[in-house]
């Protein structure tokens, strides 16, 4: 064991996985614990999704309606996040742009996708502008900005929301924990918080939030088109 | 006015229903716990031997492949060691080049043949288990002697019957969006629990796990 763990971290690990510290190398005991841990994590995410739906169903429905209205007015969607959240931004963008044969494709971009633009901005200015600068270049008043963060504290998201809000875009934020800095911003029209302290469970609940947002937005968009 | 109110109630109910559609498949995920544990152990053995994790998927699953790679290389939990993992979806020049010359089915198989080593781990992700590019990637990996793991949904599709899949983890839903959400949980758990084995070197002898 060469992990540079703090004492607190070691104690936390011990309470989670007591067999690591019992001196045993019994494989079947470890497998049993891993199985039990897997079951416990699935229970956590079911409960977290239930909480989010209980708190935010009505706001998610309104957000989908507003997002659909922006698309109907000719708007485009820009999604952004860092690390794992960058992959979520990419998933959200491709869900709108290439939803398969049963849904209407809508224009959406993932702002972490272009490594040339991202590395140029990081190198020439700093990571805090990688999304705001692209929003400044592309964003218009009918457009939609969706930023994803687990902590809610990413400076480059805060800057992007400021820029998007200044341009009159609809702004949607996804955060975890208690919302972090994103919960203090006036620049976010709809903030959805997955109230958990686990980065993993937060990301899993956020995936549901944005995929349900997509589903309801496409439904609202179809309704708007039919009534037009 | 009352119409508008009942309309917004209805929209809210649709959101609640959409969330509820996730609950039963997520509960069924618990039935995969044994298979998840066995896959984690096999992965830990390979990492212990110097293997790298190579992840791939098309469409939405390509974002999952990249998520898995960053999860292992840059762990979110302080103190966990970085483990080598790459996604085969990020090199657009190679992916589009292979697709244009040999066809889509070859995009991952080609990269595996020239980038991977026998001690590596292949993790292929597909919502229905039928993605031809992913299946070809798993076959190329198996031929090389790699450990192969498939993440599928529905009934497991072609991945389920393929001799190229050593470990198959199935998210029990036919809705590709629900499958994706369950797969995110599966690979988060894979990452966390690989470390549990990895920190217990006594259990990393390459034995067959029943």
Oligomer: heterodimer
Helical percentage of chain A:
55-70%
**Number of helices, where a helix is a run of at least 4 consecutive DSSP H or I residues of chain B:** 9
Q: Please write the CATH class name of chain A.
A: Alpha Beta
In CATH, what is the class of chain B?
Answer: Alpha Beta
Stretches of chain B where pLDDT is under 50 for at least 5 consecutive residues are none
Shape of chain B: globular
- The total strand number of chain A stands at 5
What is the number of strand segments of chain B?
5
Q: In angstroms, what separates the terminal alpha carbons of chain B? A: 63 Å
When the domains of chain A are counted, the total is 1
CATH fold description of chain A: Rossmann fold
Indicate the low-confidence ranges of chain A by residue numbers. Answer: 1-8
Word description of this protein:
The complex is a heterodimer of chains A (228) and B (210). By secondary structure, chain A is of the alpha/beta class. Chain A has helices at residues 7-16, 27-72, 84-97, 115-124, 132-138, 155-166, 199-227; strands at 77-81, 108-110, 144-148, 170-176, 190-194. A 5-stranded parallel sheet of chain A has the order 2-1-3-4-5, with helices on both faces. Chain B has one domain (7-201): 3-Layer(aba) Sandwich (Rossmann fold), CATH 3.40.50. Chain B is built from 9 helices and 5 strands. Chain B has helices at 2-20, 23-29, 33-48, 60-73, 92-102, 107-115, 132-144, 157-161, 176-198, and strands at 53-56, 85-87, 121-125, 147-153, 167-171. A 5-stranded parallel sheet of chain B has the order 2-1-3-4-5, sandwiched between helices. The chains are: A alpha/beta (228), B alpha/beta (210). At the A-B interface, helix 2, helix 3 and helix 7 of A face helix 1, helix 2, helix 3, helix 4 and helix 9 of B.
């Amino acid at each position: 064991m060469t992990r540079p763990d703090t004492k607190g971290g070691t104690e936390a690990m011990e309470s989670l996985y007591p067999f690591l510290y019992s001196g045993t190398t019994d494989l079947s005991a470890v497998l049993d614990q891993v199985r039990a841990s897997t079951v416990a994590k699935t229970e956590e995410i079911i409960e977290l999704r239930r909480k989010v739906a209980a708190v935010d169903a009505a706001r998610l429905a309104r957000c989908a309606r507003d997002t659909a209205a922006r698309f109907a007015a000719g708007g485009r969607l820009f999604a952004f996040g860092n690390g794992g959240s960058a992959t979520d931004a990419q998933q959200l963008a491709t869900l709108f742009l290439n939803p398969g044969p049963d849904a209407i494709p809508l224009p959406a971009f993932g702002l972490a996708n272009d490594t040339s633009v991202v590395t140029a901005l990081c190198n020439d200015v700093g990571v805090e502008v990688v999304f705001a600068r692209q929003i400044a270049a592309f964003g218009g008043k009918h457009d939609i900005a969706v930023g994803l963060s687990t902590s809610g504290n990413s400076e480059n998201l805060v800057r992007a929301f400021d820029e998007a809000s200044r341009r009159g875009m609809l702004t949607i934020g996804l955060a975890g924990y208690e919302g972090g800095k994103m919960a203090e911003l006036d620049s976010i029209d709809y903030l959805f918080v997955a109230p958990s302290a686990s980065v993993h469970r937060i990301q899993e609940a956020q995936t549901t939030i944005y995929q349900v947002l997509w589903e309801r937005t496409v439904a609202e968009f179809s309704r708007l088109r039919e009534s037009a | 006015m009352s119409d508008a109110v009942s309309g917004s109630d209805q929209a809210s109910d649709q959101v609640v229903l959409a969330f509820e559609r996730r609950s039963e498949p997520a509960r069924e995920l618990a039935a995969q716990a044994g298979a998840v544990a066995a896959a984690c152990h096999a992965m830990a053995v390979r990492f212990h031997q110097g293997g790298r994790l190579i992840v791939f998927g098309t469409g939405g699953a390509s974002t999952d492949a990249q998520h898995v790679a960053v999860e292992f290389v840059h762990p979110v939990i302080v103190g966990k060691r970085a483990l080598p993992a790459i996604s085969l979806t990020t090199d657009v020049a190679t992916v589009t080049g292979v697709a244009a010359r040999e066809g889509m089915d070859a995009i991952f198989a080609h990269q595996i043949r020239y980038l991977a080593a026998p001690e590596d781990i292949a993790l292929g992700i597909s919502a229905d288990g039928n993605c031809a590019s992913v299946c070809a990637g798993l076959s190329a990996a198996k031929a090389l002697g790699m450990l192969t793991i498939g993440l599928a949904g529905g009934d497991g599709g072609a991945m389920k019957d393929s001799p190229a899949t050593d470990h198959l983890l199935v998210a029990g839903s036919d809705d590709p969006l629900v499958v994706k959400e369950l797969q995110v949980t599966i690979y988060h758990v894979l990452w966390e629990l690989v470390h549990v084995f990895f920190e217990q070197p006594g259990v990393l002898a390459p034995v067959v796990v029943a």
